[in-house]
Amino acid sequence: MVDEIAQGQGSLGKLINNNDAYEKFVATLDRINQVADDLQAGKGSAGKFLKDPSLYNNANDTIANLKKVSEDINAGKGTLGRLTKDEELADKLNTTMTKLAAITSEIEAGQGTLGKLFKDETLYNNANHMLEDSQSLLKAFRENPKKYLAIKLHIF
Question: What is the pTM of this model?
Fold first, then answer.
């Protein structure tokens, strides 16, 4: 086995005897060193975050604000806090969501006026024809209003 490795056979033999693997390893170390140098020089987003105190301060302020919001929610403050702490409000919301689910199920099933509007094409077609007829009537009225407006005056 040692002879096979020494002759460059197998994966371990190729790794030990082939200069390509060594050169690739050295090149990788060079790239890692370049990245480390860029970070130290403040280049790129990560380098700026490490070197620029304003980015650090902004991130720190943001974290502090998130902590405050989280504390307010946990204390039951605000709408979200009340929602997480107030069981009555949560029950009302749950009831509302259940009712909305039932309504949307009925609409999907074609029940009620909205359900028929969504599912029944004849209602759509009738409404569409009615709108077309109304547009035609309005156009005709605009073209010849005297035809539609007649004033009759009767005296005894």
Answer: 0.36
Here the tokens at position 66 are 């998130």
Between the CA of residue 112 and those of 124, 128, 129, what are the distances in Å?
A: 14, 19, 22
- Residue 138 to residue 126: CA distance in whole angstroms: 18
Q: How far lies 40's CA from each of 43, 48, 53, in Å?
A: 8, 9, 14
- Residue with tokens 């790239």, as numbered in its chain: 31
Q: What is the DSSP letter of 154?
A: -
Centre a 10 Å sphere on the Cβ of residue 126 and count the other Cβ atoms it contains: 11
Pair of tokens at residue 28: 């990788």
Q: What is the mean pLDDT of each run of 10 residues along the chain (156 residues)?
A: 78 75 86 91 82 83 94 88 82 92 92 84 86 94 83 71
First to last CA, the chain: 131
Distance CA 128, CA 142 (A): 21
Question: CA 129 to CA 127: how far, in whole Å?
Answer: 5
Cα angle value 41/44/46 (rounded, 5°): 90
Q: Which amino acid is at 130?
A: M
